[in-house]
Backbone:
């Protein structure tokens, strides 16, 4: 999996940012549920108490985050939802998402109707990078609250389609991380100092690539899709890393062009070509992006810059994810063959 020029989607797939709110009117939009087999994730993780804990932790993080919080400054003010009502609708949505006894949109545990994502996020001017940052933070919350990596990916994949309902067509940069909101159009260009230079150039890129590839090849959910690496007539691990170094260099504003020639003198091809026929599901892509966020953070990249890099990744999802995905998950001591999501 790779990246292209430009800075800023995790996901990736991912849980919705402020994914619900409350209103006196109801909505008939279809609820979002993860396909979790015979036992729902709701039951697997203990039901309502776990949902409540995840929601409390996620909302606490959201409202304290200098990049995300400005978009929800109205929460708790006159004529707007209280934090309690926001959490109540989130509990409803997480319950439905995890296969519990609920439908979203629907009526929450306070008796209020929770409306659709498109309706409640209209006018908030949320950029894709802010959505992506929330999703990465949510992954950490889920993990801290005891959800397995595979189930985090399932949850993320189940709600990835909400991004288009939440992210604005004309986003506004309201970040307060530098002491004040700019309240202007979101910056989609390069900054004065590239991330490549900011984080020390080639040595840091090499470290991130080494750590990311090590994680990918050891991951029971991701590695089966890359099983051909290192076998005859396929790329070696060294060549994979070399092309990733080129791509991360370009992604972070360093010298180079991708697709292009790597530091071993080989040509690195575009994402669509290299991933054709691999059968990669959206959930596997989402899992990789979440793991990449952890690698970047461990290797010293700030939360804001992790979100920026994650944003650049999301645009590649359609090139990497297969229209006919195959489930090769080997996490249960065997590989199931079937359709992935």
Residues:
């Amino acid at each position: 999996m790779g990246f292209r020029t430009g800075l800023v989607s995790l996901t990736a797939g991912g849980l919705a940012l402020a994914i619900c709110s409350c209103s006196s009117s109801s909505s008939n939009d279809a609820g979002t549920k993860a396909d979790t087999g015979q036992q729902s994730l709701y039951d697997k993780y203990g039901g309502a108490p776990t949902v409540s804990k995840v929601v409390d932790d996620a909302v606490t993080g959201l409202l304290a985050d200098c990049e995300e919080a400005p978009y929800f400054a109205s929460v708790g003010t006159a004529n707007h939802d209280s934090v309690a009502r926001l959490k109540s609708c989130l509990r409803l949505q997480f319950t439905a998402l995890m296969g519990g006894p609920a439908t979203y949109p629907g009526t929450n545990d306070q008796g209020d109707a929770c409306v659709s994502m498109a309706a409640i996020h209209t006018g908030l001017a949320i950029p894709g990078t802010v959505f992506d940052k929330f999703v990465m933070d949510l992954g950490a919350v889920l993990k801290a609250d005891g959800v397995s990596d595979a189930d985090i990916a399932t949850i993320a994949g189940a709600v990835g389609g909400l991004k288009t309902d939440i992210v604005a067509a004309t986003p506004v940069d309201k970040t307060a991380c530098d002491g004040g909101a700019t309240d202007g159009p979101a910056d989609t260009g390069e900054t004065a100092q590239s991330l490549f230079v900011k984080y020390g150039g080639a040595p840091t890129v090499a470290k991130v690539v080494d750590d990311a590839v090590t994680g990918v090849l050891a991951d029971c959910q991701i590695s089966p899709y890359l099983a051909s690496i290192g076998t005859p007539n396929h790329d070696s691990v060294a060549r994979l890393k070399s092309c990733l170094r080129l791509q991360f260099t370009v992604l972070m504003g360093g010298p180079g062009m991708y697709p292009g020639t790597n530091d071993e003198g080989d040509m690195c091809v575009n994402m669509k070509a290299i991933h054709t026929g691999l059968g990669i599901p959206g959930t596997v892509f989402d899992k990789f992006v979440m793991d990449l966020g952890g690698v970047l953070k461990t290797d010293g990249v700030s939360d804001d810059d992790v979100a920026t890099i994650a944003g650049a990744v999301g645009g590649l999802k359609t090139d990497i994810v297969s229209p006919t995905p195959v489930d090769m998950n080997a996490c249960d001591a065997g590989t199931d063959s079937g359709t992935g999501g």
Summary: The first helix runs from residue 41 to 44. DSSP finds 14 helices and seven strands in the chain. Residues 1-37, 179-192, 334-341 have pLDDT under 50 and may be disordered. The beta strands are 22-23, 106-107, 113-114, 172-173, 184-185, 260-261, 267-268.
